[in-house]
Amino acid sequence: MNKLKRITGIFLAISISMTVFTSAVFAADSKSTDGEYLQSVIDLIKQKYNGNITDDELLQGALKGMFDTLDQYSAYYTPEEFEEFYGSLEGAVEGVGISIELIDKNLIINKVFANSPAKKAGVLSGDRIVQVNGESVQGKELNEVVSKIKGTAGTKVKLGLMRQGTKNMITLEMSRAQVDLPSVHYEIRGNIGYILIDSFSQNTSKGVSEALGYFDSKKITSVVLDLRNNPGGYLDQAIAVAQNFVPKGIITTLDYKDSSMEDKKFYSELEKIKYKLAVLVNENTASAAEILTGAIKDTKAGVVIGCKTFGKAKVQESLPILSDDAYDKFNDGSDKKSANAYDFNSYTTDLSGWAKMTIGLYYTPNGNCIDLKGIEPDIQVKDLTLSGIRVNLLEPMSLTVKPSLGTHYYDVLNAECALKLLKYNIGTPDYILDAKSVEAIKKFQKSNKLSSSGILDFTTQRLLNTKMSEIKQKQDAVYSRAVSELLK
């Protein structure tokens, strides 16, 4: 299916800081001199500017500036920028399936996605990237290296990696492919099903259905839905998730600015509530996540716990903007001119870029607009930090290598956080396994009747992961309150 057709009617609700303009954007009722005025400014730049600039670059800059003046959620993307943005929401990207973080000027792989080319080639979490296709990445910006690794499915890329326990660089070749990026993570904790949704991408409702199916098979009827730090995403995915929990009736209403667009109401057909539900929110729960939260709160489908949400009820739509030449071609002889490529069924080679623009507001089932207000939870509980650590954001160790003294490794941070929460003296958690951390590991190993080597071997990592899971369940104040509510 054509990508643009898939986007039609899908409303984006993630804020990204980019910007735009084009002579093609002028409405029919604009002053006729506007175009002449802007052209004169362009001519002035070309006459006086002591540097190199093309007409296309000036046009792109003007487009970025125009959409940037609308609101913080509206933006203009070049085709390349839009491809990257859309891919992040699509739930899949074309690449090798790794996530990279810049740590102490080193490019460290912090996650290798399941069934990805990188996973199959033997790339491990914690590997340090030193080369891409034989070219050193020393001193390169993170985005520059990522762009070199990503690419069209079927093409090949070679990564030069330094790995814990090896002295020489490892070179691994892999074929790029479309890689699924899961947005839903779930597990059973005792008698409670826990679902964490990172954002609402194209695969979110599928992931939630998979989680609920797993819970059903284990006869789990109490569910915690964690939407903390969820910035939003696709409206249709939030609606689809809501239909699993919200009883029959309205989920949300969209009110459009454009009078030619009919306001929409989205419904649930759920005859009977199946799960006892608690929803966890915080100040970073926004947009599509607030649509879901508002529907659950207003219909009393569950209890909302945490602190007031972000407060974004603005809805965005992505519109394809014709290039300057295409605008002239398609509007030739027309009285009412348009820069919207959707009006001409021209979606591929005739675009200047894409405009993500605020087009309306959404309302909760009770008719509330929470924009700039947020949603007050049913039960107020602060997301507390323990020893400066956000407990709910802790990640388990990956069980890929065995860090020893002096190791720079992603899992070291997770281990040190767990040890600090267990009251071992390790100072400030970082990515370096120093002498203080080794001593803490020895004490942890000894107290748990393990070999006191000070090395983060797999047995030690597994035990720390178990302890970390227990900490999450007992010391995450918001989650703990949800459990007590569900067990009433």
From TrEMBL:
<keyword id="KW-0378">Hydrolase</keyword>
<dbReference type="Pfam" id="PF01471">
    <property type="entry name" value="PG_binding_1"/>
</dbReference>
<dbReference type="InterPro" id="IPR002477">
    <property type="entry name" value="Peptidoglycan-bd-like"/>
</dbReference>
<dbReference type="InterPro" id="IPR036034">
    <property type="entry name" value="PDZ_sf"/>
</dbReference>
<dbReference type="Pfam" id="PF03572">
    <property type="entry name" value="Peptidase_S41"/>
</dbReference>
<dbReference type="GO" id="GO:0030288">
    <property type="term" value="C:outer membrane-bounded periplasmic space"/>
</dbReference>
<dbReference type="InterPro" id="IPR005151">
    <property type="entry name" value="Tail-specific_protease"/>
</dbReference>
<protein>
    <submittedName>
        <fullName>Peptidase S41</fullName>
    </submittedName>
</protein>
<feature type="signal peptide">
    <location>
        <begin position="1"/>
        <end position="27"/>
    </location>
</feature>
<keyword id="KW-0645">Protease</keyword>
<dbReference type="GO" id="GO:0008236">
    <property type="term" value="F:serine-type peptidase activity"/>
</dbReference>
<dbReference type="Pfam" id="PF17820">
    <property type="entry name" value="PDZ_6"/>
</dbReference>
<dbReference type="Pfam" id="PF22694">
    <property type="entry name" value="CtpB_N-like"/>
</dbReference>
<dbReference type="InterPro" id="IPR036366">
    <property type="entry name" value="PGBDSf"/>
</dbReference>
<feature type="domain" description="PDZ">
    <location>
        <begin position="90"/>
        <end position="152"/>
    </location>
</feature>
<dbReference type="InterPro" id="IPR004447">
    <property type="entry name" value="Peptidase_S41A"/>
</dbReference>
<dbReference type="GO" id="GO:0007165">
    <property type="term" value="P:signal transduction"/>
</dbReference>
<dbReference type="InterPro" id="IPR001478">
    <property type="entry name" value="PDZ"/>
</dbReference>
<keyword id="KW-0732">Signal</keyword>
<keyword id="KW-0720">Serine protease</keyword>
<comment type="similarity">
    <text>Belongs to the peptidase S41A family.</text>
</comment>
<dbReference type="InterPro" id="IPR029045">
    <property type="entry name" value="ClpP/crotonase-like_dom_sf"/>
</dbReference>
<dbReference type="GO" id="GO:0004175">
    <property type="term" value="F:endopeptidase activity"/>
</dbReference>
<dbReference type="InterPro" id="IPR055210">
    <property type="entry name" value="CtpA/B_N"/>
</dbReference>
<dbReference type="InterPro" id="IPR036365">
    <property type="entry name" value="PGBD-like_sf"/>
</dbReference>
<dbReference type="InterPro" id="IPR041489">
    <property type="entry name" value="PDZ_6"/>
</dbReference>
<dbReference type="GO" id="GO:0006508">
    <property type="term" value="P:proteolysis"/>
</dbReference>
